[in-house]
Predict the structure.
Amino acid sequence: MKLSGFRPGPLLIALYALFLLAAILTIPLRVSEVLQLLGSWDFSWPRLIGWVAQTPASAPLHYFVQLPFILLGGHSRLPARLPSLLFALGACYLFLRLVERVPLARPYLPLLVFMLIPVHYQLATQARPFEQALFLLLLATICYLRLIQAPTFRSAAIYAGVLVLCLYTDPSSYLPAIGYLLFLVRFVHTAQERRVIWFALPATIIPVVLFLPYYFWTYPQANPDWLFERTAFSTDSSIFVQVLHSVAGGGWNGFIAALLLLAGALAGVRASFHPPTTARLRRITLFCLFGGVVTTIVIPLLVDTWNGYSFLPSHALWAVPGMIILFFNALEWLPKKEMIQPLTTAVAVLSILLFALGDVEYFGNRSEDMQAVASLVGPELTGDSCVVFVSERLSKSLFLLFDPELAKHECRDFFHRRVILASHPYVRPDQQQDAESFFRGLNFAEAKRVRAGGGQIIVMEEPN
């Protein structure tokens, strides 16, 4: 049977859909996902828009895309995460198109790495805006390459339009566009590239101008008590460790693969310095992709270091497509020395296996499960009892989304004989200690403590 015309791309994407679906249906909703779902809880347009406005560094488009799925399917895992799955599959298709435009000789190995690299796989299984933004970023990158190839008002307008969608989905997904433009300046000595710059410059700046009104409207409304995701490393960790962890998702296997990827990306940009006989578009593409990687990592690092924050995995996501393409470009350059050709293939396969191992480990992730924590409270509300949502503010909504009946049992005073302290996974140790100390001061004693899903409940009773 002749298979010379067989293209494995659709089959790989279909298998990837099943791999994503397995995680989507088994891994519990995280606190950050629940916070997003709360925007469509008890839906009304004013409430949803107000919720988006108070979410720090948020943008509205993903809320609007996710809304029909939630209204039809409820606040469960599948409908909440289905948009991410669909955009992840679309991102795989666009990444393959991008690889073919470079071009790389073996496009399906980069596609496998793109599918399995933990930062992408994990975010693709969450009800967050990241996969929608990644899809739009890849589309913008392809539009940018078309602009380089044929600089016209139409191609510039399309590129600018997609960047506007990036900003209104997740503002940080715009960061690679800064690198694309800045690193294009290296080629300014040719008339064609100077013409491209004059089209690319307004196409890159105008989207920011169009986003600023929304930013200035929402900035003063941002909720100072928002619950931010905890990272597996502290801000004292080195910058290098933070970046590696963000790409690899942690674990020795991920760190080795991330090191290989970073080293290969640095080596892969070398092709853009080949003699002018090398294909012009390929040289520009590689160097601009490298620029996108640099600005995507450096700008958040500077901002986070200034503010004392940790480098989040979502910061690294936008750099992943460029890193992978540069990595495989380096592997294609090395086999010209025939003795190392088997080694380069082994490195590519090793990276895929190491990332896949990290993804399989992710299946066992039960570090956050708000539904499990909320389910503990109801059975304890017997007799003269009430519930206190530790850390207040947003804490109550996290529990009520899964058990609305708890609202009837919230403590309005402390004259009950039995109090249940309900703590979500993001309650800080000092907040937990303050809550427990307060009730001990009222002569309550701990009768039971149960931990689940990263949170806990404490049953405190007055002595008989």
In short: The radius of gyration is 25 Å. The mean pLDDT is 87.
